[in-house]
Amino acid sequence: GFLSSGTPGVGKTTLGKELASRAGMTYVNVGDMAKEGELYEGFDEEYDCPILDEDRVIDELEDKMSEGGVIVDYHGCDFFPERWFHIVFVLRTENSFLYDRLESRGYKGKKLQDNIQCEIFQTLYEEAVLSYREEIVHQLPSNTPEDLERNLDQITQWIEQWMKDNN
User: Fold this and answer.
1) Which pLDDT band holds residue 165 (cuts at 50, 70, 90)?
2) Across residues 2-15, what is the average pLDDT?
3) β-sheet bridge partners, residue 88
4) Which of 22, 2, 7 is nearest to 94 (CA)?
5) How far, CA to CA in Å, does 164 sit from each of 25, 102, 157?
6) Looking at the DSSP assignment, which residues form a beta bridge with residue 3?
7) Model confidence pLDDT, tens digit, residues 72-127
8) Average pLDDT of the residues in 134-141
9) Distances (CA, A) of 135 to 23, 89, 130, 138
10) Contact criterion met (CB below 8 Å) for 74 and 60
11) HSE-up of 26 (CA within 13 Å, CB side)?
């Protein structure tokens, strides 16, 4: 499996869906999956959002992941089993782009500021490097449509190479 990670608004979903259709893989958006299955354990008043039940998410995904060929999209990554992922890519977006994208999603106040901070401090990249072998973690710029195309080409090459090496 492959993990697409990064701060909300960096383009994980756009990339993940397109990649899955190009590579003939299964795309899983953990946020959507949690919503559909109500995989929550409470509500975060400060951020005005439900709290993910990580154990239930893992139980829900386990069978799919063991079949292989899955692209998982989520901003966090430290709770997924390490064995699930062969490549982890963390998308990075410049603040001005990210600010506009989050604002257009209705983010404001603390939620908006904290997500921008998260990107400035490379929080999710560091989480990925601490959670997985460093050589499988890749940062990719995600500011423009050209970046998206380049990233799709790059990741498709990685996937093809991985499949050659492991089959």
Assistant:
1) very high
2) 96
3) 3, 137
4) 7
5) 16, 38, 11
6) 72, 88
7) 999 999 999 999 999 999 999 999 999 999 999 999 999 999 999 999 999 999 99
8) 95
9) 22, 11, 11, 8
10) no
11) 12
Count of beta carbons in the 10 Å neighbourhood of residue 14: 17
Cα–Cα distance list, 92 to 36, 108, 120 (Å): 28, 20, 10
Q: Residue 110: CA atoms inside 13 Å, Cβ hemisphere, count?
A: 6
Q: At what angle do helices 54-67 and 30-37 cross, to 10 degrees?
A: 120
Q: Got the DSSP string for 84-100?
A: G-SEEEEEE--HHHHHH
Question: Cα(23)–Cα(98) distance, rounded to whole angstroms?
Answer: 27
